[in-house]
Every structure is written in structure tokens, then in C-alpha cells.
Amino acid sequence: MRPRFKLKEEQVAGLLFVSPFILGFLIFSAGPYIASLYLSLTSYDVLNPPYFVGLDNYASLLTDERFTKALGNTLYFVARRRSRWR
Asked: Cα separation of 60 and 63, whole Å?
């Protein structure tokens, strides 16, 4: 039987110093990312609970004329700005 892995005192201290950052990242960064990903896959308004629609929101987004126009305008201005940097 293998001996159990034991943390050294310095490793425990390092983990304790890093833990506030990890908790803060999970709560304030990763949490909202996961929540927005979940809500993007649902049909949701404030008054009713969300229900899962899958990728239908993204399919309707890609077929929306205003979105494709806005995306084209954005890419145009990005390309123009990039050409000035060179």
C-alpha cells in the first residue's frame, strides 16, 4: 500500500494565500459566465422561469438581418482600424 500524500507546511500556506483569489474568481467571474451561458440557451424573461430551448436562440440570431448587418459593420470597422496600425 502506498503512503498517503501529505502537504508540506509551505504548500498549505501557499494554498491559504491563493484561496481568496480562487474563491473570488469563481464567484465573480466564472459564476456569471456560467449563468449567462445557461440563460443564452433558454427562453427567459423576468416574470416567467426560464425554459430550455437549446441552440434555437443562436440559430435565430444568425438568420436575423439586423444581426448580420451589425456583424458586417463591426468587421468592416475592425478591418479598417487594423489596416491603419500597419
From this structure: 5
